[in-house]
Amino acid sequence: MWNIKGKICLITGATSGLGYHTAFELAKQGAIIGMIARDRGKCRSLADRIRAKTGNPFIDCFIADLSEPFEIRALVNQILNRYDKLNVLVNNAGARFLTLRRNSHGVEMTYALNHLAYFQIANELLNMMQNRNQSDNARIINVASAATADSPGFYDLRDDGDFDGRQACRESKLANLLFTYELARRTTDQMITVNAVDPGYVATNFNRNNGFQYWLRHLIAHSIHRNLILPRTGARIHIYLASSADVEGETGKLFRNTQPITITELDFSPEASAGLWEKSEQLLKNIFNTADKGNKNKLPSDQD
Questions:
Q1: Cα(254)–Cα(200) distance, rounded to whole angstroms?
Q2: Mean pLDDT, range 240-244, rounded to an integer
Q3: What is the pLDDT of residues 13-26, one digit of tens each?
Q4: Confidence class of residue 38 from pLDDT cuts 50, 70 and 90?
Q5: Is the confidence at residue 81, as pLDDT, over 50?
Q6: What domains sit in the chain, N to C, each tagged with a CATH number?
Q7: Angstrom distance (rounded) from CA 234 to CA 111
Q8: Can you tell me the distance from the alpha carbon of 299 to that of 277, in angstroms, rounded to the nearest whole number?
Q9: Whole-angstrom distance, CA of residue 258 vs CA of residue 278
Q10: DSSP element (H, E) containing 215
């Protein structure tokens, strides 16, 4: 029977919103928490707060800019040096960039952070997830959305004049789902479950990087929706999928609240998800191989 106490849980974007409340509640249940964030000082401060309020001393901080593949590679090495196994990975960090921005390798930032980081982190930590107690499933939880684009056209980078930040975000959410379904198919014989969550319209810091437009968005949203979901409430589905015995063995699904939902009008075929996988894998290979041809910079799936 699944019990989160003593299990190692990594959470990206863990210093605010959904990520922080997920870390806090899982720590209350006795999990070993790895908080992944960009701001070292903020992470340490919030880790101290979680320790003090929960009485759980096992809270670690890992620092990386998840839009940068080499920083993710360094992050994975830190995690490998700290832990010998991994039970739960929550891919929660994300953003929406309303104007075109690229990371240091020329990848559009929404795609880099919202999808490519999920893909890289999960792939590079799979071996760790296979090291856990084989009586339990390991769990990967990808924060996504049912509000996606209807086609994965953003995988080929667009020219500056064609960029639409809102569309890019919707397409990254479609990528989250396609990636979830494909990874679930690839891990069915490894006792690793992979699911996506749609937390709903949550009042978080998502989109704050856009400055004034962030505040305008929330003003408009509040006037339309009136009751935005609080982060503490929105995080319940993350916590449920990470800690509940009810979802033992459930994989390849999109959850809203505690129930799986289906989006029937979009193409989630194996061909579509495999196509995204191949393009994502090739993009990372190109980034690493351009910088360094050595084995140390290849994805685990490429190593002998």
A1: 12
A2: 96
A3: 999 889 999 999 99
A4: very high
A5: yes
A6: 8-302 (3.40.50.720)
A7: 23
A8: 13
A9: 31
A10: helix 212-225
